[in-house]
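To whoever picks this up:

The nightly regression suite flagged Ribosomal-protein-alanine acetyltransferase as changed. Nothing in the input moved, so I suspect the structure step. Input below, exactly as stored in the fixture:
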Amino acid sequence: MREISSQARLLPNETPRLHFRLLSDSDAEFVLALLNEPDWLKYIGDKNVHTLEDALAYIHTGPLAMFAQQGFCLSLVERIQDGVPLGLCGLLQRESLQWPDIGFAFAQRYHGRGIAFEAATATLKHAKETLGLTKVAAITALNNEASMGLLSKLGFTLQDKTALPGHDEPSNLFLKIL
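Regenerated output under the current build:
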C-alpha cells in the first residue's frame, strides 16, 4: 500500500456549490435511498443495502474502511447553502485495477445540474494536487451513456473493456492522465 501523509488524508473541501465530507452514521437514511435508486441498481448494481443497518454497514465497511486504508474514499457531497446531501463522489482503490478510480452517483432529482461534473473536477484536482496521483481510472457499465459523456467531458479516454469481480457483464475502463 502507498504511504499517504497525514496532510494528504483530506478530502476535497469545497467548490462554489458543494461541500465534501466523510460519511457518518447520520447519513444512513440517505445512503439507503441512494443505493436503491433505479440508476444505481441499473448501472452500479445491487449492493444488498436494504435496511438502515445495511446502510450503516456499507458506510463502515466501504467508504470509511477505504479512507482508513488508502487515505481516500467516496465522500458525501452536500449542498453548501443548506447541507442537503446530493450524492457520493470520490476515489476508490479496487484490487483488480492498477490505478485508483473515480466514482460518482447522485440522487436522480439532482441530475442535469452540473453537480457531478463539479464534484468530479474537484476530486480530480484533489487526486493530483493533494494525493500526488498521475493517473486515475474510471469504470462504467457498457450502456451508461450519461457517465460516459461526463467522463469524456472530464478528459478521460476509453481504454478497453474489463471484467470486475462480482459483475456478470464487462465494464468500460477509462483513464485520465493528470
